[in-house]
Amino acid sequence: MARIYGEQSRMMLVIEKYYFFSAFYFAALVLYLSLGVLNNIKLLFSIGGLIAFLLIVLPIITLLLLIRKYFKVNAIKYYLGRKGETKVRYILSKLPNNYVVFINAKVLPPYNIDFIVLGPTGLFAIEVKSHNGQISFDGSRLLKNGKPFKEKDPLAQAMSEALALREKVCAKFCYPVLVFSNGGVKLRFGFNDQKSVYVLKKEFLNKFILSREKSIDDNMIVSLEEKILQYVKNNDKSMDLKINFIEK
Question: What is the value of pTM for the model shown?
Answer without folding.
Answer: 0.73
